[in-house]
Amino acid sequence: MSIDKKKEQLTIGYLGEQLVGQWLQQQGWQLVAQGWHSRWGEIDIVARQPREAGEEWLAFVEVKTRSRGNWDADGLLAITPTKQMKLWKTAQAFLAKHPHLAELPCRFDVALVRCVRRPSTETTSQVQTDRLRHLSAQAERICRLGEPNFPEELALGQTIKVAHYSLTLATYLEAAFSG
């Protein structure tokens, strides 16, 4: 895979995670962590539903962002039993680091985001291109895209435009699998 293709995948993944995080906040959830790593893997989003919103929950959210024509049902087929086990172990590590959250009921949610690249009319100078190559992947995404500016109200199925992409939060599966 080329470096440019890998960078685009990282960018698309980042935008999908930001979109889902924003949507969760608009649903009344508090983001506890994003991109949390352990030796077993990464949890894209850890969110807490406050007691005022009803029953209190801690959700470990796996975000799959895919382009049109993907082979894996918008990322759903990528949540294999092996992937589920890694997420479960990573969630256990998270709770060990945050024992004050360990008593909350937990669940594993899956968010599926569709992404379409829109044609770009902008050109980038060689100086800009060389400069961007030296930045870390996350810093590059933020510098190039800026923090995504999402609408104040997001809905499932709503398409929004960010940078050179159209994103749609297609599906949100609560308690998609058990640990």
UniProtKB/TrEMBL annotation:
GO molecular function per UniProt: nucleic acid binding
Matching InterPro entries: Restrct_endonuc-II-like (IPR011335), tRNA_endonuc-like_dom_sf (IPR011856), UPF0102_YraN-like (IPR003509)
Pfam families for this protein: UPF0102 (PF02021)
Family to which this protein belongs: Belongs to the UPF0102 family.
HAMAP family: UPF0102
The protein's name: UPF0102 protein C1752_01057
